[in-house]
Amino acid sequence: MVDSRRFCGTTFRSKLSTKGTLAVPCSQLSMLAPENIQQIGQELAISWNDGAESYIGLEYLRRVCPCAGCGGEPDVLGNISRPNVTYSENSFELRGFTLVGGYALQPQWADGHNTGIYSFQYLRRLAEPVKPA
């Protein structure tokens, strides 16, 4: 069954999929969403629907991976058990990425790691400069 709502296209580039379109309802364009995502050298470049651009270093992106295997996960008491994560030289080489729903990006790294799901809001925060307190 085809949804009768009008959709707006968002262009992205990935090494896995060189060009594609992500269907986003036009009514949701006020939500934070990327218009274009590309790897440029050792950075992930994101053009956002509000006109802003973000550049995130690949090594930094991998080191702040939000998956349970990298960042840890809470036990029933809320204590976070942080794993000891080791990296190889392939750990920071981006092989590609996929879009998850209309809310996140999932990178595939050369060392095989691919369980991190980075929400668009998280990616935007990673790229914002830290403001002094």
Q: What does it look like?
A:
The longest helix has 8 residues, at about 120-125. This protein has a single domain (about 5-125), classed as 2-Layer Sandwich (NE0471 N-terminal domain-like), CATH 3.30.2020.30. Residues about 1-30 have low confidence and may be disordered. Strands 3-4-5 form a three-stranded antiparallel β-sheet. The N and C termini lie far apart (about 50 Å). The chain is mainly β and about 130 residues long. It contains three helices and ten strands.
Short descriptors:
133 residues; mainly beta; NE0471 N-terminal domain-like; three-stranded antiparallel β-sheet; 3 helices; 14% helix; disordered N terminus
Rg, nearest Å: 16 Å
CATH architecture: 2-Layer Sandwich
The level 1 CATH classification is Alpha Beta
Shape: globular
Mean pLDDT: 81
Amount of helix: 10-25%
Beta-strand portion reads 35-45%
**Helix/strand class:** mainly beta
Distance between the termini: 52 Å
Spatial ordering of strands, largest sheet: 3-4-5
> How many separate structural domains?
1
Give helix and strand order, one letter per element, not per position: EEEEEHHEEEEEH
Strands, total number: 10
The CATH topology, please? NE0471 N-terminal domain-like
Number of distinct helices: 3
Major beta sheet summary:
3 strands, antiparallel
Low-confidence segments, given as residue ranges, are 1-29
Summarize the structure.
Helices cover 14% and strands 37% of the residues.
Topology:
Elements: E1 7-12, E2 20-25, E3 34-40, E4 43-48, E5 53-57, H1 58-63, H2 68-71, E6 73-74, E7 80-81, E8 94-100, E9 104-109, E10 118-119, H3 120-127
Antiparallel strand pairs: 1-2, 3-4, 4-5, 6-7, 8-9, 9-10
